[in-house]
Amino acid sequence: MKLQLSKRKWRVLGGGLLVVAAVVALGALYLVRHNHWVKAEDYYKTGQYQKVYDLVGNQPLPTDAKELSIYGQAMMATQHYDKALKAYQELNKQNSSLDTELILANIKQEMGDNAAAESQYQAIVNQNSGFIQAYLNLASLYRIEGQADKANEILLSGIKNNPQSASLYSYLISINADKKGAKDYQSWVDNLKKLDPGAQISS
Predict the structure, then answer these.
(1) I need a surface site. Which of 98, 118, 146, 151 has the fewest CB within 10 A?
(2) How far apart are CA 92 and CA 168, in angstroms?
(3) What single-letter DSSP state applies at residue 61?
């Protein structure tokens, strides 16, 4: 009887020790991970994105929104676009926003998926006709692809919806420098000068 009780005590004690060991191990892992992210955030704040990548680039994708943002921006800056895409997709699942949608479109363009980027930029301006940067990025994409007419079309659409946007006029003028004698070109210049008298326009 005493022997049986003794065995039971050892089993209970052994089980308890295993639980303690597991808790200690998990605590140690948490501290290591926490310290990694503290350092990563410090590097991020000073623009040392390669060091952020070196610390967390090969770690599992974080779930915390702040860590995801740091991770995603660092992956973009170091041109690890596949990892950046996953980070911003997760961020968008957690808290969908057009700002995040724009970043996702930018990443897709960097990855060479211009069709997906175009579709996403277009979806953004359809949802919010006042999102100036989406018009600019889409026009830039069309220009890169050699589709000048489409670039002009989206910029003019943006101007129609945002007549006070100097940025849209400025970009429209810059990509039509070969049309300086045209009536429309002069009209764009006049409107830009009204919006931004100090705007620099190449002669």
Answers:
(1) 146
(2) 27
(3) P
